[in-house]
Amino acid sequence: MKRLFLAILISCFSGLNAQIHEVGVFLGGANYIGDVGKTTYINPNEFSFGVLYKWNRSTRHAYRLSFIQGKISANDIDSEVPGRNKRGYNFSNTVREITAGMEFNFFEFDLHQLEQQFTPYVFTGVSLTNYDELYVLNGRTKVDINSGTFSIPMIVGIKGNITDSWILGFEVGARYTLTDNLDGSNPKNEDLQSLQFGNLTSKDWYVFSGFTLTYTFGNKPCFCAD
Prior knowledge:
single chain, mainly beta, 8 strands, elongated
């Protein structure tokens, strides 16, 4: 009996080195929140796509790494704010991010079980975001240099397994950036700072909304040690 117990215990701990992994894609839309255009928080008006990887450390949390790229654009003509509508600025930019962090499941999501499951989840971490520094001259938006910034992703979603090996999810994720110039309102270049406009004390946001589809692989884990 003691040998059987010891064998089970060793099996459980050795399973921690063989967790289930996920690789997959993200497809959806993107929108921006800042000093140009609409002030709607979730309003995907451009395409975004990416790839992601997850390491399911337990039934309740997973480490996640992703790359997502999307176009963001806005036009003052579409704004409900009279001042913006009269100003008439517009811009487009491309954001590319590499993100690492932790995903937390509200319900147990045990990939060792084969029956259908679902759970809401939240995710946060840190992103490195690449974008173009813009400026507006004579009403036209121009590119200065390519630049980067750190961002904080705040994602909520829901996911479920649709087969033994495939998981489908839907999520909405806002990114708080450490720049105020995704839109050309606050250029870093000192020679262009006379062209600043809008609220210079707030940072820009962008949002990715869409579906994830991931494939699971690796040995089925034993979560009894977590």
